Amino acid sequence: MNQYPLWKYILLIVVASMGAFYAMPNIYPPDPAIQVSGASAAQDMDQKVLDKATAAMKAAGLDYFGEKFSEKSVLIRLLSLDDQMQAQRVVQTALDKDFEGGYVVAVNQASTTPDWLTNLGAYPMKLGLDLAGGVHFLLEVDTKLMMRDEITTIRKEVARSLRKERLKGANVRLEGLRLEIAVKSDDERVKVTTLLRANYSNLEYNKFEKDGRYIVDAGFTEAYVREREDYAIAQNLTTLRKRVNEIGVSEPIVQRQGRNRIVVQLPGIQDTARAKAIIGKTASLEFRIEAKPGARASEKDLFPFKDERQQQLYGGAYLERRAIVYGKNVTNAQVNFDQDTNQPQVSITLDGRGGDLMNKKTRRHVNEKMGVLFIEYKTRTHISTDENGHEVKTFEQIPSRKIISLSRILEPLGHKFRVTGLDSYEEAAEFALLLRAGALAAPMGFVEERTIGPSLGKENVEVGVRSVQLGLILVVLFMLFYYRVFGFAANIALTLNLVLLMAIMSGLGATLTLPGIAGIVLTVGMAVDANVLIFSRIKEELADGAPNQTAISSGFDRAFVTILDANVTTLIVALILYAVGSGPVQGFAVTLAIGILTSMFTAIVGTRAVVNLIYGNRKVEKLWI
Predict the structure, then answer these.
(1) Residue 302 pLDDT more than 90?
(2) pLDDT tens digits, 418-460
(3) Would you call 422 helix, strand, or coil by DSSP?
(4) Counting C-beta atoms within 10 Å of the first and last residue's C-beta, which end of the chain has fewer, N or C?
């Protein structure tokens, strides 16, 4: 009785070994560091940048080591956390002076995990904003303004269509986000509803009469409003992620919150003003006709190609100085395939005014080339000292204009047209992304912002670790004092529980936050709760006169249902917290949910395995419990 087969012990040893292996990276604390990356995500790193950065740090008397050079960034490790902000300022100033704001310097953390662990897929847990320090922004997307702009465009199109139908007495006006179309007769109203049904399937409408006029009241369907809101949020998320990636920070968080808000968290970034300048930077598009060879210098501009291969071949191209339409006129851009040639293409949609301007211009320039100019603004930092001797930072937006497409106009274009001649689907997808990311789908505003310093993050880590250690020590001592041998078995299972919890969170790539540490502390207490139930049941069996081995077996078996019920209800609460909560609440819920699962396994299987090793299949005169 009370003896596990050999395969169960082997399974436990394998699980414990794997848990220890994947939890091991967390014992290697990261080094403070600064990271230099290009102001553009496509910008490659240069050895000159590393040399300039290290020279500036040497001149400032800052100690560093372990420079890591890669294609897209440079990572320089520091000896002290206190040197991070000074190093960031010194290097940023030096690079802005020599490279015209072409590079961004951010504080970061450099992993010290050995390569033999990372090569086998073992990585430490990521630290959240409250532990690593950084900035937090909450932005609100103005989807109502987006829908107002769209209904305004439709109003203009409907008014133009009604004039073509010779309904001169028709009156089209806006009432909030709804169209009110008034005509003279019911026959004219039938024409209006036919027009709306044929061209605007996203509108729903009502008909009534008012002051002798026949009215059609039209507005967007609720399903379409939700679809456009989701598109705007998704598009803004894409744009923000592209901008955030240019900062060079590791593990940024850009995610949707609720119906119309976006959370941006940048661990390791301390300069709120700079982060806002980069996140809020503007980029735009211009569509221009290629200038003729004999055009005067005042009528054309030379622009480089974004593609380096094209730039090397052609050295840039001259475009007319006056643009046809701008990026603000692009409402959508999607990549697809040409049905005839099966080649990738990008379908572009312009608003009403942009479509009219495009049609008039391209009608006169068929068989000529049209260039798409991508205008991106890089942020350059200027540091000065005010009259009180305080450091003052100002930021300058430096435009970068490059051609991302130059293709021939085969026929007059309207508000919808296609761009072909792209080499691959990946290139077409990138082109569509640039078109969409040129401007936000809907305007956004900063609702909330806060900064957590690296020293506070370090203090949070230290306090959190001490709380886990203190909780663990107290629980271990209590279990040994009160349950003796059985308490020893429970403590082994508790240690295994913490190892598995760390391993699973590291393997899942979960982000550890301060509430997450609170979840770990709670898990320490809950992990022995199941053992307490088991041991209490064993005591009851002994009090009822059951033999020792029978009491052990009955205690584990009969307590199982109670343990399962208690933990399942807690797990449901954790899932609800994760579903309805955000940020810190979700961090707590993730840790709690994983802790519940690991504690059930270790308490039921792990503790019983140790108890069976001590008391199983032998004559026991007395149980030390």
Answers:
(1) yes
(2) 776 566 676 676 667 666 655 566 777 777 777 666 566 677 7
(3) coil
(4) N
Which tokens is 180 given?
A: 């009110």
Beta bridge partners of 336: 345
Q: What is the pLDDT of residues 400-419, one digit of tens each?
A: 888 888 888 888 888 887 77
Among 52-66, 292-306, 376-390, 492-506, name the one with the lowest average pLDDT.
376-390
| Distance (Å, whole) CA 72 – CA 69 | 8
Q: Is the dihedral of CA 564, 566, 572, 577 positive or negative?
A: negative
- Mean pLDDT across the stretch 58-66? 88
In the chain the domains, ranked by start, together with CATH numbers, are 6-25+453-615 (1.20.1640.10), 31-110 (3.30.70.260), 144-224 (3.30.70), 283-438 (3.30.1360.200)
CA distance 485 to 613: 12
> What's the chain's Rg over C-alpha atoms?
33
Phi-psi region of 394 (alpha: psi -120 to 50; beta: other; left: phi over 0): beta
Class of residue 561 by CB neighbours under 10 A (exposed 0-12, middle 13-18, buried 19+):
exposed
Q: What stretch of H or E contains 137?
A: strand 134-141
Q: What is the pLDDT at residue 282?
A: 52
**Residue 270 contacts by C-beta under 8 Å, 6 or more apart in sequence?**
85, 88, 107, 133, 134, 135, 451, 453, 454
Q: Are 346 and 435 spatial neighbours (Cβ–Cβ below 8 Å)?
A: yes
Enumerate the H helices of 336-394 as residue ranges: 352-363
